[in-house]
Structure formats: structure tokens, C-alpha cells
Amino acid sequence: MIHIARLLLLPLALLWVSSFIGCGTSYELDTKDPASIFRAAMIELEDEDWLESEKLFDLIRLQYPSSPYADDAQFYIGELHFRKGEHILASFNFDMVRRSYPMSELSRISRYKSALCYYELSPPFDRDQDYTKKAIQHFAEYQALYPDDSLYMESGKKIDELRNKLARREYETAEIYRKLYTNKSALVYYDFVIEDYPDTEYYEAAFVGKIEALSDLKRKDELRATIEQYNARIPKGTMRDRVMSIANSLP
Q1: What is the pTM of this model?
Q2: 17, 58, 74, 242: which has the highest count of C-beta atoms within 10 A?
Q3: Residues 201, 211 contacting (CB under 8 angstroms)
């Protein structure tokens, strides 16, 4: 059935290719040579002729799936969608490199590029953060699989940036509750930051926010314990004066 499907697709693929001939192209195209098709596809890609480039890459994938250019064609379909800003389609096609050609040398970079797609999809901190979490997951998987790769450090930087975004979302939510004088609700979100994002720039601010909220609620025993935790975990904090002011006011 697969061979029949390919035969059915061949006339359509050749129709695509025929549209290139006589249309001012700067290359000769041999439809029986995947190398020739690939070179033509790359020319179209660099010229940002996305439609024609994808048609040629698809021709390689469909008609020459066993050729040395098949995995390249799949990768560059992902790349052209990435360049167009179509990151969901790009991620899908990068993932197809790993699934269809697991032994390909492009499998590694495809995994990174897929993570980068979700990074680009990550919205501002006050929006739903599903894509942010997916990006973190994909970068972490990349690091686990390729600990010695040159992109390991870059993946770590991206993870740090994305985790800061998630921490900011929780912290800003806590701050909103503080402004609304609902300190009990604010404490929940400060604790999210303290427990889940201790490696982010919002860690100390969440601790201080929690201490101030506990002070407003006059929960003295819990306040003392939290100040002790702050002193132990952040002995040289930049917001220490605010903490010590509250600590010194305790009986």
C-alpha cells in the first residue's frame, strides 16, 4: 500500500517540479537525482521562497525516502517553518526527524530546535504558561541526552530564563493579593516561589513578601520561624534591611 501511495503522489510531485522549469530559476533540476532536488530546495529556502522550497523538500521525502537527503529534507521543512514563525509546525517537523530518522546526525540538533520552538511560543508572564513549561521540559531532556554538547550551556540559560518567568507569575500574583489586603491568599503564592523556584531572582523577594504578610497578619510564631529561615538561606540578601526592621519590632 505504501508503494501504491507513492506512485499516486508521483504525478503531483512532478507537476510541482514542472512549475519551476521556465520560471526564471537559476538552477537546473534533475527530478531523478535527489541531490539535484536538494540543492534546488536550499536555493529556494535561502531566497525565502517558502512554498517552492517545501515542495522540493517534500518531493525528496516522498519519492526518495531512502536517499542520504531524506533526513535533511525533513529537517529543513522544520527550519523553513521556524523561519516563518510557524513554531508549532516547525516543532512537529523537527520531531519527525527524530522519529523517522533516529540514527540521523540531525537528530540531536532537531531536538534542540524543537525546544527552541516552544521557547519562542512562550508568552509574557501574565499569560497561560503551558508552552513555557514544555520548553523547559524539552531543554531539560536535551541536556540529559547530550551533557557534553556545545548547546548544553545555552539550554541551561534558556531554562533559567523560563523558570524566572514562571516564578515571576507566582510572585506577581502574590503581590496583587497583598494590594487587595488578602494576605492569606498572598502567602500561598509566596510559598510557591519559595518552594518551587529557589534558583530564581524572585526567591528573596518572595521570602520578604511572606515575612511582611505574616507581620500584617500578626502570626508571630510563624513570622519568627520564617525570619530564621530567611537568615539561614539568604544570609547576605539585598532586602535584609526590611527583614531586620520587622525582626527588631518583635517583642
Answers
A1: 0.85
A2: 74
A3: no
Please report which residue ranges of 20-49 form alpha helices under DSSP H.
34-46
186 contacts 175 by C-beta, under 8 angstroms: yes
Among 51, 60, 43, which Cα is nearest to 19's? Answer: 51
The backbone torsions φ and ψ at residue 114, rounded to the nearest 5 degrees and listed phi first, read: -65, -40
**Locus of grid cell 523558570:** 163
Host H or E run for residue 51 = helix 50-63
Distance (Å, rounded) from C-alpha 88 to C-alpha 94? 10
Residues 209/212/214/220 CA torsion (nearest 10 deg): 140
- CA–CA gap between residue 233 and residue 69 (Å, rounded): 54
The Cα–Cα gap between 61 and 38 comes to: 10
Dmax (CA) of the chain: 90
Rounded alpha-carbon distances, angstroms, from residue 223 to 66, 124, 132, 152, 237: 67, 33, 33, 41, 18
Q: Is residue 90 within 8 Å of residue 82, measured between CB atoms?
A: yes
Domains and CATH numbers, the chain: 1-21+31-121 (1.25.40.10)
Which sign, positive or negative, has the C-alpha torsion 161, 165, 168, 170? Answer: negative
**CA 121, 127, 133 angle in degrees (round to 5)?**
55
Spatial CA neighbour of 141 closest among 125, 159, 162: 159
